[in-house]
Amino acid sequence: MTKIRDDQSLTIVIVSYNVRDELTACLRSVIGHTDPFPTDVVVVDNASHDGTAQMVASEWPGVRMIEAGDNLGFARANNLGIRATESEYILLLNPDTLVPPGAIPALVRGLATHPDAAVAGPRLIDEAGYPELSFGWSIGPFGELRQKIVGDLYNRRVRVVVRRVDRWAREPGPRQWVSGACLLIRRADLEAVGLLDERYFMYTEDVDLCLSIRKRGRGVLFVPQSEILHLRGRSAQRNPHTERLRRRSQLAYYEKHHPLWVPALRLYLRLTGRGPSG
C-alpha cells in the first residue's frame, strides 16, 4: 500500500457568486478541519454584490480572497484560483456544501493511496440524508438517457431505484466522472490536461475534466468514506439563466466530444424549447 505523507499540501478553491451566507457556513465547516494536511483556502469571487468579499476579509483573514472583477463562470474562476497556488492537491469545493470533520482528510487519503488515480470525489448527501447521483456515465446520447431515467426515478423515490442508488453510493472504486461540487485532483494531472476547459461557463466542466483525465490513462475514484452535505442548487435557483447555461454547456461538450450528434441535439433542444438562446 502507498504510504501517505502528512505533509502533502492541499489548496481548497471555492468559487462564489452572491452566496455570502452559504459561503460563511461552508468556510466555518472547512477551516481547521483538514489536519494533518497543510491547507490553504482560496475564495474566487465572481463580482458578487452581496458583500461576499467584505465578509471574507473581515471574518476570515486567513482565507485568500481573489476578486475576479466580473462573473467569469465556474471553470475560468477555478482556474484563476488554481494558477495562484502551488499545492500538490487541489480540492474544488462548492460554497453550498458543509464539510463534517474528517471528511476532507479521508478524501485526500483515499486518493493518495491510489497512485494510478488522479481524481477523487466523496459521497454527497442532501439535507434529507439521501445520496446524490454525484457520479455516473459520461455524457453522450445513451449515457445521458440512462442517467436521466435513473435520476428521474430516484427523484420520485421509486423504492427499488433508491435502494440501488444508495448501494452504488456506498461502493468505492472507479467511476467515469465525479461531481465538481467536491472534486479532489492532483495538481500534476490537472496541469497535464490544461486545467478546466473554460468553454464551459457553468455545468459539464467536471465531466469533461474527468474524461480528459481518463484519456491519459489515469483513474477517477469515488470515495464514499468521505461524506459531504450538498445543499444543492441554492445559488442556481437565484439565476434565471441556469437552464440556458446548462444547455449551452451540453452543446459545447457534444461539439468537443460527439460532433456527429450535434445537429440532432440542436434539433431536439429547438423542438423542446430548451435551446441555449431560448
Please tag this protein with its features.
278 residues, alpha/beta, Spore Coat Polysaccharide Biosynthesis Protein SpsA, Chain A, 2 domains, 9-stranded mixed β-sheet, two-stranded antiparallel ribbon, 11 strands
Account of the 3D structure:
Strands 1, 2, 3, 4, 5, 6, 8, 10 and 11 form a 9-stranded mixed β-sheet that branches. The protein has a two-stranded antiparallel sheet with strand order 7-9. It is about 40% helix and about 20% strand. Helix 10 packs antiparallel against helix 11. Strand 1, helix 1 (about 20-30) and strand 2 (about 40-45) form a beta-alpha-beta unit. The model has no long low-confidence stretch (mean pLDDT about 90). The protein is built from 11 helices and 11 strands. It is globular, with a radius of gyration of 18 Å. It is α/β, with parallel strands linked by helices and about 280 residues long. The chain folds into 2 domains: about 10-140 and about 165-235, Spore Coat Polysaccharide Biosynthesis Protein SpsA, Chain A, CATH 3.90.550; about 240-278.
